Amino acid sequence: MKIECSPEVARALAERAPVVALESTLITHGLPHPINVEVARALEAVIREQGATPATIAVLQGRICVGLTDNELTQLAEADQVRKCSRRDLPIVVARGEFGATTVCGTMLIAHAAGIRVFSTGGIGGVHRGHPLDVSADLLELGRTPVTVVCAGAKSILDLPLTLEVLETQGVPVVGYQTDEFPAFYSPSSDLPIDVNCESPREVAALMRVRDRLGLSAGLLVTVPIPAEHALPHDEIEEAIQKALEEADAKDIRGKEVTPFLLARVSELTGEASQSANIALLKNNARVAAEIALAHG
Ligand code: PSU
Ligand code: MN
Q: Which ligand is nearest to the CA of 140?
């Protein structure tokens, strides 16, 4: 794959120094402007503070970029037409010289091609509530690409039990980071089980090494509960989610539009509180991902 690494990322990879990938769909389709650019920069700063190198991944005018300059980040966040880009979309954006914002799926596959082992995000895609055949490509990518994805679980816009079933089928170990429960993004708990509780970055790094030694090619999903002081009451979020889901069905929204529509509606309906929770967990995940990258060496 033809990839353009920024000088900083190229140097870190050549020195085998710890690198953490970051996705770009959350910048273009997950958060409103201009907070999206501020958050993207803040996440890079958190990773640097820990002593790792951040690598934000996106497609800029058909070029697959790993590590963006400040200018490139602004260009992406302000571009009119940015295609949400998972595995299926990648050849299209590259062939047409378009801007592409990579999802968890798209970011994983590019990170792997670049030699990056750890990737931090907010929430992964999953199986949609009431639409069990709408399975995010994120889950299938986790099944085939050995990258460790650090997230806060998944939003309950999704069917979380079915999402865990698909991860099991795909052979993806689900790690609870210092927890016995699968976190549900705004809430640290869901009453759903994880496969193993890892107490430290070192334990996660050890799992990654054993997975490689066994010759298994699936990713690892590390789920980190939202810090307690930022968690939101379940009922408040659930009401907004119900409303957003009904609207999506009434408007017959389908395919790749579903997730951005639900994210935008839930964020509009819940306002400030959900946005600051979202940002807090993104930073927390970036910190944990950097610690894992350092422990993996
Ligand atoms: N969930 C969130 N925020 C996000 C996404 C999901 O809470 O920004 C984005 C991620 O980029 C994820 C993508 O990979 O949505 C999943 O889209 P889909 O459901 O269409 O696969
Ligand atoms: Mn889908």
A: 1
